[in-house]
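Re: that backbone. Tokens:
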């Protein structure tokens, strides 16, 4: 029986992909690296350091660990500044509706994001009150497709994985949910999240009615 929901943040609750893109682009331009929207698409759902490593691999550049941390921090300063512009109007269409509905119906709800800035994003959205538990980039060390972040959320909610549905927009996020024994809802195109138990193009279609009809006991 489904008792809880675990939501990814970027690409599910709100879309911070554009702010990530602008911050990586600024750093890349300063460093003379090639970086475009196609490369950015590969960073969906992966950690900050893994994102930097991907960009460097793409440019066939190798740097020492100290420089990696320095550059990732530099990108994050720009990203955090951009986050100040997020407002409660910036929920992805449908996201606030399902979160409200879940609260009304008494489901347990957690966040399961890779981002170390998740708290700040939730505050900007005024979304903190929708979540019983916030799992973010500080909560676990292993990144998706490892299921650690979702297992963290389920444990804090006091639920088993098979009692929870994970919402994800990233290929590796769906892998993580399935690896942990969770039910999964993919948000995005078939090519990216078609391996989820259930898929919607956007959050606007992912109503609690649709979810309940599919996952009924
Ligand atoms: P930060 P999610 C992910 O958020 C983003 O999709 C990904 O692009 C980013 O690199 C990652 O968070 C880490 O973010 O630099 O803020 O720690 O989709 O897991 O909510
Ligand atoms: Mg995401």
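Recovered sequence:
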């Amino acid at each position: 029986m489904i008792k809880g929901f675990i939501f990814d943040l970027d690409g599910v609750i709100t879309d911070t992909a554009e702010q990530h893109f602008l911050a990586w682009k600024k750093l890349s331009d300063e460093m003379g690296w090639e970086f475009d929207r196609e490369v950015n698409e590969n960073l969906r759902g992966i950690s900050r350091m893994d994102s930097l490593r991907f960009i460097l691999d793409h440019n066939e550049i190798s740097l020492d660990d100290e420089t990696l941390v320095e550059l990732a921090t530099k990108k994050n300063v720009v990203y955090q500044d951009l986050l100040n512009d997020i407002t409660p109007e910036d929920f992805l269409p449908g996201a606030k509706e399902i979160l409200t509905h879940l609260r009304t119906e008494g489901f347990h709800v957690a966040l399961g994001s890779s981002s170390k800035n998740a708290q700040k994003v939730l505050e900007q959205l005024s979304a903190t009150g929708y979540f019983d538990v916030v799992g973010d980039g500080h909560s676990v060390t292993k990144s998706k497709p490892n299921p650690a972040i979702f297992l963290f959320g389920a444990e804090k909610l006091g639920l088993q994985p098979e009692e929870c549905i994970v919402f994800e927009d990233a290929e590796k996020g769906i892998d993580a949910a399935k690896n942990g024994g969770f039910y999964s809802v993919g948000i995005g195109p078939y090519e990216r999240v078609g391996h989820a138990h259930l898929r919607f193009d956007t959050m606007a279609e992912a109503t609690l009615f649709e979810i309940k009809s599919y996952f009924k006991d």
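Residues 16-84 form a domain with the DNA polymerase; domain 1 fold (CATH 1.10.150.240). The two ends are 6 Å apart (CA to CA).
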